[in-house]
Structure formats: structure tokens, C-alpha cells
Design brief:
CATH superfamily: Aldolase class I
Bound molecules: cytidine-5'-monophosphate
CATH architecture: Alpha-Beta Barrel
Shape: globular
Strand order of the largest sheet: 1-2-3-4-5-6-7-8
Helix content: 40-55%
Number of domains: 1
Strand content: 15-25%
Number of helices: 11
CATH class: Alpha Beta
Mean pLDDT: 94
Distance between the termini: 7 Å
Structural class: alpha/beta
Largest sheet: 8 strands, parallel, barrel
Number of strands: 8
CATH topology: TIM Barrel
Length: 232
């Protein structure tokens, strides 16, 4: 079964705990990001792990290699299942991240953010002074992540075929930007349905508001799991 990771973008522990009550009998993978982590600290991660939830800690590290190595060592000891860095921190930084994780004894998947979906060609060229196309930047960052020994990348489902072709089918793709129907997009620009993500080869999908803001989150979660796995 391909996993659906629920993006738990809540302001605080209270809201998060209310949401978790919808899942009394099963343990979906949870993505804990900066908003919740900076409010509640590492304890929220340890609590969720103790309750048996797989955790993707979405902190997108980006600093000098020495700092990232040490930060990753501490993150590894929290027992997370997935963690990420920004690929634009460079090859040495990604290698250091991997090193820190291994030193902690963690078996967490380490993935890289290539180009944020909020960045378009204008920002890339005029602000960041990167003059290649977005697709070429994504390919280069994915290749560097692979060279550094990372397990995969965060990307749009639409980029999955290109990344799998270049980095191999085993290089995992974790894809946000998922909507139940193509009409409802919120602030996401390049969206796909869970079924399209499956067809494009996404290995994990990340779904936030479609589940967290649903009247019946458990029902929607099941519906998405079914779509993503095409009845398998
Ligand atoms: O609510 P929604 O399904 O749009 O949530 C998507 C989640 O994936 C959010 O937590 C967002 O921060 C994250 N994400 C994203 N695009 C990226 C990287 C992460 O939407 N490129």
C-alpha cells in the first residue's frame, strides 16, 4: 500500500489532539511541520511516536554542513520516520545531513526539497539569480540529492516521471499539491488528484486541508487511500 501522509498544519497541540481523535483505531503517517514543532517542541514528535504514528518531520534544514550534521543527529534520536533538507544547501550539506542521521542510529528516510512550489521562473531568475529553467534546477537538485545518498525528494506529482527517469524508480518521490477534485485548489498551483498522483508514480502523497478540514476526516482519509492505491 502506498502511504498517504497527513499534513498536520495546526497552530498548537490542542487543535492537533482534537484532530487525532478522528483516528482511534488506525495510525496514519503524520507530517509535523515548522508551525507545530516551533510551538510545541520535540515532545510533540515523541508523543506521536509513542502513540504509534509514523512521523515525517518537515523542518527543511538549510545551514552549513557542520550545523546540519549535528541537528540531524538530534533529530535522528527523536525516532522520526522521515525528515528533509533543502537541496539548495548543496552537496556537502546533504552528505553531512546523511552522516548525522547515520551517526544517530536512525533509519529515517532522508529527502530533499528541490525547488519550492512557491518559486516560479521570475523569482528563480530575478531574485535568486538562477538562470536555468525550473525543471533543469529540479533535475540538478534531485541528482545532487541522490549523489549525497539521500532517499528521494519532495516534488509535484507532475515532476515524478521526470525524476524517476533520471534518478531511478527506487528514488522516492513525496508529493504534496493533492486535491480530491481538480476544481478546488486553495493556494496550490499545480494540483493533481490522488489517482493521478498514483498514475504518475508518486511513492507517497502528502494531503493537508482536504483531510484536516473535512467534516469526516477518517472517511476522506480512507477515500484517498483507496484512490491512491487504485483499489489494490
Ligand atoms: O493543505 P495542503 O494539502 O495544500 O497541504 C500540503 C502540505 O504540503 C503543507 O504542509 C505544505 O506546507 C506542504 N508542502 C507543499 N509544497 C511543497 C512542499 C511542502 O505544499 N513544495
Amino acid at each position: 500500500m502506498k502511504p498517504v501522509i497527513i499534513a498536520c498544519d495546526f497552530e498548537n497541540k490542542e487543535q492537533f489532539m482534537e484532530f487525532i481523535k478522528h483516528f482511534p483505531d488506525e495510525k496514519p503517517s503524520l507530517k509535523i511541520g515548522m508551525e507545530l514543532f516551533y510551538q510545541e517542541g520535540p515532545k510533540i514528535v515523541k508523543d506521536m511516536k509513542q502513540q504509534g504514528f509514523p512521523v515525517f518531520l518537515d523542518l527543511k534544514l538549510n545551514d552549513i554542513p557542520n550545523t546540519v550534521e549535528k541537528a540531524m543527529y538530534n533529530i535522528g534520536r527523536l525516532g522520526v520516520d522521515m525528515i528533509n533538507v533543502h537541496a539548495n544547501g548543496g552537496l556537502a550539506m546533504m552528505k553531512a545531513a546523511k552522516q548525522g542521521l547515520l551517526r544517530s542510529g536512525s533509519k529515517a528516510k532522508l529527502i530533499a526539497v528541490t525547488v519550492l512550489t512557491s518559486i516560479d521562473d521570475t523569482i528563480l531568475h530575478q531574485e535568486l539569480l538562477v538562470f536555468s529553467s525550473i525543471n533543469n534546477a529540479i533535475i540538478k537538485y534531485a541528482e545532487l540529492a541522490k549523489e549525497a545518498g539521500l532517499d528521494g525528494v519532495v516534488c509535484s506529482p507532475l515532476e515524478v516521471p521526470m525524476i524517476h527517469k533520471i534518478c531511478g524508480e527506487k528514488f522516492i518521490t513525496v508529493t504534496p499539491g493533492i486535491r480530491l477534485s481538480e476544481q478546488q485548489s486553495d493556494d496550490q498551483k499545480r494540483i493533481t488528484t490522488p489517482k493521478m498522483a498514483y498514475e504518475l508514480g508518486s511513492d507517497y502523497i502528502v494531503v493537508g486541508r482536504s483531510i484536516t478540514k473535512a467534516k469526516d476526516p477518517l472517511l476522506v482519509y480512507h477515500q484517498i487511500m483507496e484512490d491512491m492505491n487504485c483499489g489494490n
